[in-house]
């Protein structure tokens, strides 16, 4: 049952810097994602701030560099002033998007504190559906203001002398989509509204990095947004959700492989805009963009509605099995291969909702998808290497192997992240490195493989052993480097200098 494949890279040809922000996470006031997930004031498992300590330990293991908040679609009804100041004074509101009551006890300051605890940069998204440009600019002042002005002073009066320095701001979320509280906007309307938001927010803080709403399914929407707003667009947002139509494994993998196309389409579009803007109207008292526009895949993940274990359809508490973990590794390879354009990506979401971590009143556990999310953060290099893969098919139109490769900062490690998606065959893979520096020739190959008993294997409370990890080392023999890749496995292969 052994099949043959090969992967070739050129150690001398770095293809692009891998932005650390590719490994971000997202949290939203949706079901038990925030309250009942990362935050529970009434749990014995929480610290004094109300953060679940068992959950925070697991979130920290993920080493996320970026955390997006408060939505998602929730932003369309969120008014940030409801979530600041003494908790007893905060307004309770119906969560008109996702249902339930939002007591707003987790708001801006709690979010910032959470980011600091897990070592992540905060990324806030403003309400442009039922909020105003002025409200958004006030939020910028509350977070970043340093002068003697109302909202900066309001923050100080809440106990935060130092500014929060929030650099990344999203202007709206999926504004092209009709939702309960949002509207199905025409792109011209989005452009006009966004320009007002940009001006007021940048006048508060010219250093903000802005994420504008793109549309991966509608290149024309994205083109028009960039045509008009490219001088102030640091990142163009797209959302990549695999929503497999049935429970078949091949359908799942195919649904993720097809995302190569929107990334290529978006890259072709971005290439039409200059790396920096030199002809910006100097009348504006804030600078234009000085670096190339990048993509923010600020929501990505797998909606396998067949695996919903939440109390309702909109709780989105999916139980991820090993097949989903192989899908996540495939997604991460895709982003790494496209690292020249993917400047940030935030997995939707973090706890309970579409999540790598589940929590209830008794405890918490890591789902199967936790393994690839963590592995990429732990082992990926700094620059991508272009990998050429010759792989057998596992079904019509689906390659068994999915690969990306990278090299570390000082060039001392060459890393391959390889998913053998074929559940029936092990694959003997020849690893070929052109221009391998001599220093590697006395080095070692470290192979770490994650696998599970079967594609349906899942973790649950008290049983977190569906995924096993095996590690081995051997000497590099430059003319004959092979890796045996187990069926339905995910492998990190590291060539290391002595
Ligand atoms: O992540 C759940 C929802 O999916 C988000 O609120 C929305 O932006 C997306 O459609």
Automatic annotation (TrEMBL):
Ranges where the Alpha-L-arabinofuranosidase C-terminal domain occurs: 298-489
GO MF, any single term: alpha-L-arabinofuranosidase activity
Catalytic reaction equation(s): Hydrolysis of terminal non-reducing alpha-L-arabinofuranoside residues in alpha-L-arabinosides
EC number, as in UniProt: 3.2.1.55
One Pfam family matching this protein: Alpha-L-AF_C
GO annotation, biological process: L-arabinose metabolic process; polysaccharide catabolic process
Keywords of the record: Carbohydrate metabolism, Glycosidase, Hydrolase, Signal
InterPro entries the record matches: Alpha-L-AF_C (IPR010720), ASD1_cat (IPR055235), GH (IPR017853), Glyco_hydro_b (IPR013780)
Quaternary structure and partners: Homohexamer; trimer of dimers.
Family: Belongs to the glycosyl hydrolase 51 family.
Official protein name in the record: non-reducing end alpha-L-arabinofuranosidase
């Amino acid at each position: 049952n052994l099949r043959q494949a090969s992967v070739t890279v050129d150690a001398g040809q770095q293809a692009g810097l891998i932005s650390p922000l590719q490994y971000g996470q997202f949290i939203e006031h949706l079901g038990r994602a925030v309250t009942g997930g990362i935050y529970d004031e009434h749990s014995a498992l929480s610290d004094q701030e109300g953060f679940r300590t068992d959950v925070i330990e697991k979130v920290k293991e993920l080493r996320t560099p970026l955390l997006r908040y408060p939505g998602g679609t929730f932003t369309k009804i969120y008014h940030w002033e409801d979530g600041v100041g003494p908790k007893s004074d905060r307004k309770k509101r119906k969560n008109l998007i996702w249902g339930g009551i939002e007591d707003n006890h987790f708001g801006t300051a709690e979010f910032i504190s959470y980011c600091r605890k897990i070592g992540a940069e905060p990324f806030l998204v403003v309400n442009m559906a039922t909020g105003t440009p002025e409200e958004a600019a006030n939020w910028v002042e509350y977070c970043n203001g340093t002068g003697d002005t109302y909202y900066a002073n309001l923050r100080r009066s809440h106990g935060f002398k130092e500014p929060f320095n929030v650099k990344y701001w999203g202007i709206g979320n999926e504004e092209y989509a009709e939702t309960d509280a949002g509207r199905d906007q025409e792109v011209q309307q989005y452009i006009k509204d966004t320009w007002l938001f940009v001006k007021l927010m940048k006048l508060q803080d010219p250093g903000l990095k802005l994420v504008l709403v793109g549309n991966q399914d509608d290149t024309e929407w994205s083109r028009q947004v960039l045509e008009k707003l490219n001088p102030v667009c640091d990142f163009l947002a797209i959302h990549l959700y695999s929503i497999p139509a049935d429970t078949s494994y091949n359908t799942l993998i195919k649904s993720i492989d097809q995302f190569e196309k929107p990334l290529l389409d978006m890259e072709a579009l971005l290439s039409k805009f200059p790396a920096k803007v030199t002809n910006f109207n100097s009348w504006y008292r804030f600078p234009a963009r000085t670096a190339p526009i990048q993509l923010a895949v600020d929501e990505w993940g797998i909606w396998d509605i067949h695996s919903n274990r939440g109390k309702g359809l909109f709780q989105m508490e999916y139980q991820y099995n090993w097949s989903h973990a192989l899908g996540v590794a495939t997604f991460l390879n895709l982003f790494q291969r496209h690292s020249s354009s993917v400047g940030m990506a935030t997995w939707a979401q973090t706890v309970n909702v579409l999540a790598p971590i589940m929590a209830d009143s008794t405890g918490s556990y890591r789902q199967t998808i936790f393994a690839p999310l963590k592995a990429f953060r732990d082992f990926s290099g700094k620059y991508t290497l272009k990998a050429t893969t010759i792989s057998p098919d596992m079904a019509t139109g689906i390659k068994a192997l999915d690969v990306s490769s990278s090299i570390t900062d000082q060039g001392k490690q060459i890393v391959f992240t390889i998913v053998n998606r074929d559940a029936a065959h092990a694959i003997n893979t020849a690893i070929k490195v052109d221009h391998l520096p001599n220093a590697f020739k006395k080095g070692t190959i470290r192979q770490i493989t994650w696998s599970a008993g079967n594609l349906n294997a899942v973790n649950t409370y008290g049983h977190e052993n569906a995924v096993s990890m095996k590690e081995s080392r051997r000497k590099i023999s430059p003319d004959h480097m092979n890796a045996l890749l187990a069926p339905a496995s995910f492998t990190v292969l590291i060539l290391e200098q002595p």
